[in-house]
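Can anyone check this?
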Amino acid sequence: MTNKRCSKCHYMKNEDDFGNDKHSFDGKRTYCKQCANEQTRKYKNKHPEKIKWAKKKSVYGIGKRGYDAMIKFQDNKCPICQCDLDTVTPCIDHNHALEKSDPKYVRGICCTSCNVGLGHFKDSLSVLRRAAEYIEMCGGQE
């Protein structure tokens, strides 16, 4: 077992205390895992917006520009209930049956209530139609 000096804390540590890096000459990172974790924590605290949008890009394939363009295209309204998206927590609505690489994966930006509702109805048109018929039958409002 070999030891290596962390370039951040300068302690000699076991090679296993360093993450892998295929581009370095020894195959290990220069910072130990503990220092790397601390650095990551500091970066996340300092740049929460960057982290938020990187996560959305990773999960949904849509970044801030695409998100803002969708909101503008929807006239800042939920496409289902038409509430103003500035007054609620908007959610990225996506089609669970498609792959993230599909351009139709992200359907739009909905309010939380409508997005959760779609999820509970499992994105099924037939179930949603039956729900609408049921509400109509029971005297529901337009």
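Reply from J.R.: I decoded it. The longest strand covers residues 106-111.
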